[in-house]
Structures are given as structure tokens and as C-alpha cells.
Write a sequence for this structure.
């Protein structure tokens, strides 16, 4: 097939990355089915061990360009691309141009702006166009299916003109961009092969031909993708290495009992591909005990195939008998208990039952996926004829062809499922056997995502792993692991996870501490930092989060004295500069001013400031003060709402602290959005009547609140169960023993 050079280039890129310590994925896509790729260490999983097919990757009977997808740590992916440019020549490497098209909503907005229509008017119109990113709705389809949009057009000549122009422009190219992962490499300067385009956001040129035409010009695409999970695996391994534990993820046993027990309990928070609520439910029912179960679940958990998950589980546990369709197919379908899951199974069925070559079987699979009648009729005739020659009756052959054709439409690439299942298993193995290190690495990856950090905080609480507060003398810029006096491990909260401080600046603070010793007091801290790397807001938020508690217990004094500390920092730097000019002069002459005399915040103020700086309550929760007031009210913890909804309960009483209230809507229809927090999660996106804002202002910005919750509402596909507030009765507590009235109802987003 004359692709040896392509394989060797991919192998060279992967080998260099691994040599530089850049995490590389075990495989991705159909390329994982190549034994040659495995032998060249491009992939890490043995295709013979997992029953993967080379012909799914490259078909000798329909030769097309190979397409290896390689995952790298996203933080170091640019280094890989730089290497490719150096190795093969900057003038021979380019990105691939892509073109964004004017879709229904975008064309309405653009045309509306040119026509001078108000944003609100056009936005209201755009919201009448159904939003479906996976299968975008055209403007004409929206007009045909949405009566309100058609009525706007019919009743308003300006809107009619807007829509008329938009229909003519829809589908045209709007802007140029570049392929998210693909690059091309030429055997000569690319300017001799294709026209080039300079993307203002990148130093690398891009082809002016899109991928289809770039390939027709003789160029080959190399997909160098970023996968964040690889960063987690690598960071967890580094944390373990610091503690003297070496782990080779490529060699972890695939039969680890602790890993499968953990997955069987559904405790897969943070586990690649397996952490969604629906997937965790499937894991609890499946009780996986081998890597093949994980591969199957990765392939099945998609719209369409997921309808077969109950059957797969029932057959695995003996509650149903597998149907192998025909005795000759038992060997192919036994692994998946009679359920056709993989595209490779479709190919093997055609080979075993109807005598297809694997190359021909791949063509059959493609035809079934496209469902073109002429192709299907020709393939049906070939399939039945081959099956008859193999002692299969015409009736059985026709029946099996129709069944296989049905499954082929949404069959999954087993090579890709196996590769990603292996990554999923590796993350699960680390969580089951080294949970502290794994979760510290996971939290570092999500350092700027407050919602994810709060989820991880709850997971640590569930696992009994202490989360130590941020400390200027103990925390690193990222999350770290500490050994406690009793020999157990804890995770220290990252300085860089505090809002509006920045990982880079916090790295400088931690490096200074590591080089010159702990900070002794606030002015020692201020005197040693670079005033150009830190500002007032950063010091305020560090103080509010409690990062200076090891230096002084008065958080308010430090927060209010941030300007004083910064002024001292500047003076200290000036002293150091003068000392360097006058060799041997004392660099500590900067006089120490006094911090403002301030009484510290009370507990509720302290927690409110902490929540503002961290994004959630870390050291305690204000609702802890209301335990006695809430007794006897039958309050449901927010974390149990999903379970109760599933059991048919539709009304709940919740308790939380009001974080914010925003009013929306005109006149008598005015309403308010509320954000609540209880000790387990934040309740967001809900609406309340306008009187809540008046009551919350009267009682104070942060207060306890109880209320009835009615639900569920929202589509079946919304799995996350994010609580939404709707109109019903609410009791707001200005003080732990004094309720004041408000009204709310809680539903589901």
C-alpha cells in the first residue's frame, strides 16, 4: 500500500514525544487495529489480544489515505508541533484551513446587524430557531416547523426582509479558521504544492485548500490531538514518584480487583469516559469484571446503542439467554453476549457467514452505514449468495443481513473503544489504588473550574480524604499531597485555585518559599515578593481564602491592608536594588508600617468572604448554624434529590444559603433568579417571584432558606439534575432562630 513512510513519520513523532517525557495516549481511532503500529510503539494495545482488525483502518480493496489520530498532553502539544517543524522543515509543515458557514441563527444575527435591527429583536427571533449542534436546523426547516417564526415573518415586513436575505446567504462561508488538530507535511516546500494562508492567531501557515482538496494535492494529514486525561495520569504518576512509588501505566494489570469493585459501585467521579450519572448507573448494574466489559460500555453508551445496555447486562448476569443469530456466529458474538456492538463484528459476520474478505466486509459495512438503496440491494444479493454457498439457508441469510444492517448503522469502532477503554481503566486503576494522588492531579487539571472543584471536594469528603485549607507556607500553586501525623494522606488546597490570583504568580510565591524558607509574617511575605507579579486583589483573595492564617488569624486586617503590604513590597524591592548598587549595604532598611486596626469578621462574614474567594464554602458552611432551626422540617439534602426523583417523589423541602438574586422580566411578569448553596452543592438557574429579592435584602444578602421543591421538569436527556427554583413557599431565616417569609418552588433543569 506504500504507506511505510507515513507509519515511520508517525512513529518518529511518538518516539520523540515519549523521549521528552510528553504523555502520549495508547491509541485512538481505527489505527489501534494495526499490528505494525503496535510494533512501532505508535499504539500501546495489542490488536491481536483485543480482536481488532487492520482492515477497519486500511482496506486493501479500497485504498485510501491512512489516518492516525494521536493523543498528547494538551499542555505540551505545541512542543510536538515545534518538533515536527524542526524535523521536517518549517516550510514543509502547515495547518489545514477550515471554513465556518453561515447557519440559521448566525445568518439572522449578521443580516440583522447590517439592517440596523436591535439586538433584542433579532435575538428573540433567533431563539425561535431550534438549536441542535449535532444536526443543525436550516432556516427553511425552522420556518416550516415553528409557527411563531413563520408568524413573525408574515406579520412584519422588516422581519420578512431579514428572513428573505438570510435564506439567500445561509450556507455560505462566513470565516476561515484552522483544523483543531490536523497538520500536513510535504516532501518539498508546501508553496510548491498548495496555496498557503497566514492565520493571524498562529505563526504556522495554513493550507488554503480544505482537507479534501489538500489530500487531492498529495498531502497527508497527521492528527496531533490533546487529551486532558493524559495530563492527569502523568501528574498523578509524578506525585507518586515524589513519594517513592514508581508506576508504569502501560503495564498495570488489567484484572485488578479493587478497580472493578470500585467501578461496580459506580464511584467513577473523575474516571475518563465513565463519570457521567447515566454511565455510573450502568456500571452499578453491569458490575464489570474484565476490560472487555469496559470496552463494550464505552461503545454502547451513545444514543441508539444504549438501548442494548439492559440486554447486555441481563445476558452477562444470566437473567437472559444470549441470541447468537446462527451457530456459526457464536465465536464472534460470545464476547458481547449476542449483542452486535462493534463495526468489526459486522465485518467478521460477513466474512464467516457469507465468505467476504475482510476488505470486502469493510465495504459492506460502509454501504450499510450509508443506507443507499442501490448499494444495499447489491450487497444483499452478494451476502445471501455467499451464505447459501456456506450452507446457510436463504431465510436465515436474509434475516441476518437485515439484523446486521440495522446494527451497522450505529455500530462503534472497536479499535477506538478499546483504546479509550484502556485510558478509562488506567484512570480507574489510579483512583482505586492511589485515590489521593489521582484526585490531587484531577483537581489541578480543573484548577480554574469552580464547579468541578466543588464536585471533587464532595468526592474527597465521601472517600474520607481530608482537604487541607490553602496556606501560604504549605500550599503549592497546584493541588498537592501531604502526609499527616497519623500516617494518612491529605490534599492541600492549591493557591492557584483561589479566584483571580493566577497560577503563574502563585508559582513564583511557592518557588520563593522553597528557596528561602517559610514566610514568617505578612511583612516578611511582602518584602520577599516581586510587586510586579502580585496586586491588591490577589492579596485580598488570598486573605479571604485563609491562605495567611498561618501568619495571622485576622483575615479582615490583611484583606483591608493589601495596599499597605504592596507599598511595603515596593519599598523593599527598592532597598534591594540600592543594596546591589552599593555593594554590601543593608537590604532590610524598608520601615515596616502598621496594618489597619480592624476587628476580624464574624463567622458568617468570614465564610462569605471565603466563598467569594474560593467559589464555595471550604472550611465550614453557614447552614451549620441552622441545624437546630431546621430540625423537624424534613429537609432533603440536595445530593439526594436525583435519587428521590427517580423513585417518583416530586416534592421536596430543601435548605440553603442565598448566594445571589437577579431580577428579570418586564412589569407584572418580573421574576428573580436565585442561587442557593447547601453543604453538598449549589442550586442554580432557578426562578423566584420578585418579592424574594425584597425579603432577602431585608434579611441580609446571605441567609438560610428552606422551601418546597416540585419537579421534575425538563427533557429526558438532561441527566445532571441541576436543581432549579420555581414558585412555591419559602421560609428565609435572617437568624438561626428567626424565620421571615418568602415564596419559592424548586424544580429541575
Amino acid at each position: 500500500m506504500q504507506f511505510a513512510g507515513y507509519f515511520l513519520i508517525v512513529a518518529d513523532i511518538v518516539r520523540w514525544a515519549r523521549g521528552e517525557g510528553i504523555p502520549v495516549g495508547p491509541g485512538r481511532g481505527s489505527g489501534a487495529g494495526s499490528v505494525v503500529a503496535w510494533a512501532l510503539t505508535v499504539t500501546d494495545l495489542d490488536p491481536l489480544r483485543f480482536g481488532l482488525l487492520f482492515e477497519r483502518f486500511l482496506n486493501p480493496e479500497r485504498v485510501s489515505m491512512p489516518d492516525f489520530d494521536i493523543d498528547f498532553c494538551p499542555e505540551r502539544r505545541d512542543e510536538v508541533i515545534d518538533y515536527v517543524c524542526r524535523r521536517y522543515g518549517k516550510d514543509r509543515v502547515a495547518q489545514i484551513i477550515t471554513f465556518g458557514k453561515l447557519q440559521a441563527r448566525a445568518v439572522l444575527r449578521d443580516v440583522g446587524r447590517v439592517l440596523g435591527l436591535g439586538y433584542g429583536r433579532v435575538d428573540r427571533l433567533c431563539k425561535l430557531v431550534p438549536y441542535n449542534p449535532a444536526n443543525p436546523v436550516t432556516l427553511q426547516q425552522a420556518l416550516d416547523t415553528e409557527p411563531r417564526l413563520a408568524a413573525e415573518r408574515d406579520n412584519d415586513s422588516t422581519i420578512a426582509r431579514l428572513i428573505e436575505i438570510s435564506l439567500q446567504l445561509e450556507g455560505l462561508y462566513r470565516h476561515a479558521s484552522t483544523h483543531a488538530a490536523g497538520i500536513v507535511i510535504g516532501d518539498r516546500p508546501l508553496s510548491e504544492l498548495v496555496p498557503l494562508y497566514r492565520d493571524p492567531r498562529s505563526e504556522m501557515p495554513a493550507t488554503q485548500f480544505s482537507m479534501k482538496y489538500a489530500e487531492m494535492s498529495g498531502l497527508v494529514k497527521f492528527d496531533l490531538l490533546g487529551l486532558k486525561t493524559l495530563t492527569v495520569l502523568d501528574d498523578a504518576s509524578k506525585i507518586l514518584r515524589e513519594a517513592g512509588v514508581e508506576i508504569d501505566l502501560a503495564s498495570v494489570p488489567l484484572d485488578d480487583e479493587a478497580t472493578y469493585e470500585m467501578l461496580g459501585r459506580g464511584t467513577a467521579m473523575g474516571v475518563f469516559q465513565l463519570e457521567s450519572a447515566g454511565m455510573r448507573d450502568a456500571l452499578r448494574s453491569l458490575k464489570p469484571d474484565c476490560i472487555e466489559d469496559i470496552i463494550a460500555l464505552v461503545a454502547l453508551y451513545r444514543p441508539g446503542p444504549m438501548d442494548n445496555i439492559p440486554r447486555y447486562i441481563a445476558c452477562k448476569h444470566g437473567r437472559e439467554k444470549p441470541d447468537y443469530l446462527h451457530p456459526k456466529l457464536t465465536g464472534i458474538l460470545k464476547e458481547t453476549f449476542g449483542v452486535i456492538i462493534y463495526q468489526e463484528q459486522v465485518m467478521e459476520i460477513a466474512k464467516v457467514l457469507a465468505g467476504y474478505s475482510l476488505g470486502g466486509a469493510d465495504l459492506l459495512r460502509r454501504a450499510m452505514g450509508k443506507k443507499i438503496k442501490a448499494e444495499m440491494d447489491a450487497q444483499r444479493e452478494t451476502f445471501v449468495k455467499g451464505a447459501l454457498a456456506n450452507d446457510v439457508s436463504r431465510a436465515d441469510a436474509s434475516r441476518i443481513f437485515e439484523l446486521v444492517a440495522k446494527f451497522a448503522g450505529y455500530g462503534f469502532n472497536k479499535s477506538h473503544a478499546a483504546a479509550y477503554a484502556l485510558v478509562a481503566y488506567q484512570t480507574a486503576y489510579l483512583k482505586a489504588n492511589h485515590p489521593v494522588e489521582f484526585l490531587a492531579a484531577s483537581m489541578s487539571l480543573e484548577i480554574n473550574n469552580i464547579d468541578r472543584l466543588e464536585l471533587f471536594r464532595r468526592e474527597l469528603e465521601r472517600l474520607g480524604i481530608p482537604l487541607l485549607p490553602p496556606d501560604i507556607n504549605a500550599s503549592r500553586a497546584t493541588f498537592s499531597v501531604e502526609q499527616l501525623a497519623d500516617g494518612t494522606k491529605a490534599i492541600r488546597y492549591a493557591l492557584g485555585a483561589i479566584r483571580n490570583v493566577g497560577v503563574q504568580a502563585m508559582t513564583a510565591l511557592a518557588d520563593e518559599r522553597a528557596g528561602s524558607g517559610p514566610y514568617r509574617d505578612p511583612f516578611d511575605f511582602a518584602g520577599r515578593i516581586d510587586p510586579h507579579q502580585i496586586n491588591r486583589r490577589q492579596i485580598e483573595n488570598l486573605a479571604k481564602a485563609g491562605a495567611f492564617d498561618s501568619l495571622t488569624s485576622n483575615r479582615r486586617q490583611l484583606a483591608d491592608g493589601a495596599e499597605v503590604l504592596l507599598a511595603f513590597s515596593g519599598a523593599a524591592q527598592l532597598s534591594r536594588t540600592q543594596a546591589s548598587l552599593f555593594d554590601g549595604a543593608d537590604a532590610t532598611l524598608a520601615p515596616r508600617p502598621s496594618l489597619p486596626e480592624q476587628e476580624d469578621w464574624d463567622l458568617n462574614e468570614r465564610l462569605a468572604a471565603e466563598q467569594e474567594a474560593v467559589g464555595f464554602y471550604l472550611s465550614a458552611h453557614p447552614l451549620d448554624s441552622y441545624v437546630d432551626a431546621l430540625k423537624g422540617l424534613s429537609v432533603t439534602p440536595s445530593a439526594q434529590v436525583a435519587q428521590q426523583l427517580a423513585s417518583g417523589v416530586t416534592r421536596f423541602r430543601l435548605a440553603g444559603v442565598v448566594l445571589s438574586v437577579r431580577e428579570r422580566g418586564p412589569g407584572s411578569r418580573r421574576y428573580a433568579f436565585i442561587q442557593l448553596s447547601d453543604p453538598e452543592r449549589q442550586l442554580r438557574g432557578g426562578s423566584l417571584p420578585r418579592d424574594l429579592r425584597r425579603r432577602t435584602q431585608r434579611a441580609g444578602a446571605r441567609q438560610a432558606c428552606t422551601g418546597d421543591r416540585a419537579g421534575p421538569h425538563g427533557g429526558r436527556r438532561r441527566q445532571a439534575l441541576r436543581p432549579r427554583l420555581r414558585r412555591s413557599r419559602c421560609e428565609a431565616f435572617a437568624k438561626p432562630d428567626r424565620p421571615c417569609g418568602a415564596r419559592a418552588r424548586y424544580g429541575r433543569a
In short: The longest helix spans residues 414-433. Residues 696-702, 706-723, 737-749 have pLDDT under 50 and may be disordered. The CA atoms of residues 17 and 80 lie 6 Å apart.
